[in-house]
Amino acid sequence: MNEKVKPKDVLIETASRLFRVRGYCGVGLNDIIEESGVPKGSLYYYFPEGKEQLAIEAINHTKKLVMEEIQTVFGGISNPIDAFQAHVYELSKMFGEGGNPVGSPIGTIAGEKHSTSEPIRLACESAFKDWQSIYTEKFLEADYTRQQSISLAIVFHALIEGGILLALTMKSGKPLEAIAEQIPLLLIKK
Amino acid sequence: MNEKVKPKDVLIETASRLFRVRGYCGVGLNDIIEESGVPKGSLYYYFPEGKEQLAIEAINHTKKLVMEEIQTVFGGISNPIDAFQAHVYELSKMFGEGGNPVGSPIGTIAGEKHSTSEPIRLACESAFKDWQSIYTEKFLEADYTRQQSISLAIVFHALIEGGILLALTMKSGKPLEAIAEQIPLLLIKK
DNA sequence: GTCTATAAGTTGATAGAC
DNA sequence: GTCTATCAACTTATAGAC
User: Fold this and answer.
1) ∠ at Cα A39 (A34, A44), nearest 5°?
2) What is the pLDDT of residues B47-84, one digit of tens each?
3) 118-157 in A: which are within 8 Å (CB) of B?
4) How far apart are CA B108 and CA A106, in angstroms?
C-alpha cells in the first residue's frame, strides 16, 4: 500500500481547482507549479503536450467530481422535483457569500475555449452530456416520456449553469435559492 | 455632421466582439489593435487605465446592445410566455451551427474575472441586473405578483445564460431550441 | 491627438544536469 | 524520474517623436 501522493494527481487537482476559479487563460503554468509544489520539469514529464493536455485531464477530473455530487443528492430522493430542488439548494450553499472560493465547474473554460481548442471543447461537451444523462435518467424513472426527459434535462442543466454564473457574479447564493424555490412550480404536470 | 468613425468607438466595438468570443484573458491588446487598426498609443490615450478600463466600456456596450435586442423582441409580443419563447428562438438561430462566431455576451468575462477584478465584476453585475429588470417588468405587466416576477426573471435569465453556454459548447442551436419548446410548459399558471 | 519604438515582466515550453 | 536554468514569444504598459 503506497500512501505517497502522486505528483500527477496533485497537478490535476490543483489545475482543476485553479481553472474553476479563474478560467483556462487566467491561470498560468507558473501558478499551478507554485501552488502544487511540483516543478515545471515534472509537469512536462507527466503532461508532455503541456497546458492543453493538463486542462483536459483537469476537466475530466471535475466531471467525475460533479457526477458524484449529483448522484449523492439524487440517490436519496426518488421524486425528480424534490431531487432537483435539493441539488440546487446544495449549490446555493456552495456558491453563497461565505466559504472558500469555488468557480463554475467547467463553464468558464467552455466559454473561453470552445472556439479556439477543439480538444478542450470536446472534453467540456463530454462532461455536459454525462451530467445531462443523469438528469434524463431521473425523469425517465419518474415515467416522463423519453423525449420529455431529454428536453427537461437540457432545461435543468441550463438552469444550473446559468444559476451558478449569476451566483458568482452577484457574489450571492440568492439567485440559486430563487431558482430552487421556483422548481416545484416549473415542474407541475399538466 | 461628422461621418468619420471615432477611434474610441472602434476600439470598444472591436474589444466587445473579441471578448465575447474568447473571453477577457484570451484576448490580448495586440489582437484588439490589430483587428481595429487603431495603434497602441491611441488606445492608451483613450483608455489611460488600460485593458481593464477598455473591458468595462466594452461590457457596457454589450449590455446596451443586448437590452435593445430584448426590447425589440418583447415590444411586439405582450404575453410573457410567447415573448420569452420568441427571444430564445432568436438566440437559437444566432448560436446555431451556421453563421459567424458569436460568444456569450458577457458570461465568459464574468466567469473569468468575478474573483480577480471587482470593477469588472460590478460592470457584469450591472448588466445582469438591467437585463433582469426588463424580464421582471414583462411579468409584472402580465399581472404576476412582484415577488413572482422577480423570481421568474432570475429563472429565465439563468436559463438563457446556461442555454447560450450549452449551445456554444455543443456547437448547436438544439439546446436553445429545446429550452424554447419547454417554456410554455414551464410557465403554465397554477 | 496620433503613432512608433521599446521597456519590463510573464507566458508556455525545452534542454540537460543529476 | 526529478528538478533547474533558460528560451523565444508574448503580455501590458510607457516614453517620447511628430
Assistant:
1) 120
2) 999 999 999 999 999 999 999 999 999 999 999 999 99
3) 121, 124-125, 128, 150-152, 154-155, 157
4) 11
Cα distances (Å, whole numbers) of residue B90 to B70, B161, B165: 10, 14, 15
- For position A189, what pLDDT does the model report? 58
Torsion (CA) A101, A9, A52, A117 in degrees, nearest 10: -70
CA A121 vs CA A46, A52, A106, A111: distances in Å: 22, 11, 10, 9
CATH number of the domain to which B75 belongs: 1.10.357.10
DSSP result, A46-83: H-TTTHHHHHHHHHHHHHHHHHHHHHHHHHT--SHHHH
The pLDDT of residue A58 is 98
Chain position carrying cell 410573457: B80
Residue A190 is assigned to a structural domain of this protein: no
Q: Does A159 touch chain B (CB under 8 A)?
A: yes
CA A155 – CA A132 distance, rounded (Å):
10
Per-residue confidence (pLDDT) for residue B41, from 0 to 100? 97
What pLDDT does B189 receive? 58
**Which chain A positions have a beta carbon within 8 Å of B160's beta carbon?**
162
Question: Does some domain include residue B119?
Answer: yes
Q: Do B165 and A111 touch (CB under 8 A)?
A: yes
- The pTM of this model reads 0.97
**How many domains are contained in chain B?**
1
Q: Torsions phi, psi of A109, nearest 5?
A: -60, -45
CA B141 → CA B77, B145, B149, B151, B154, distances in Å? 12, 10, 9, 15, 17
Are the CB atoms for A130 and A68 separated by under 8 Å? no
Residue B188 lies in a domain: no
Q: Whole domain around residue A129: which residue ranges?
A: 7-183
A143-155 mean pLDDT: 97
Question: DSSP secondary-structure letter at B114?
Answer: T
Query: Distance between CA B110 and CA A105 in Å, rounded?
Result: 14
**What does chain A come to in residues?**
190
Of B166, B54, B51, the residue nearest B104 (C-alpha):
B166
Instruction: Report CB contact under 8 Å: B169, A103.
Output: no
Q: What is the mean pLDDT of residues A29-39?
A: 97
Residue A33 included in any domain: yes
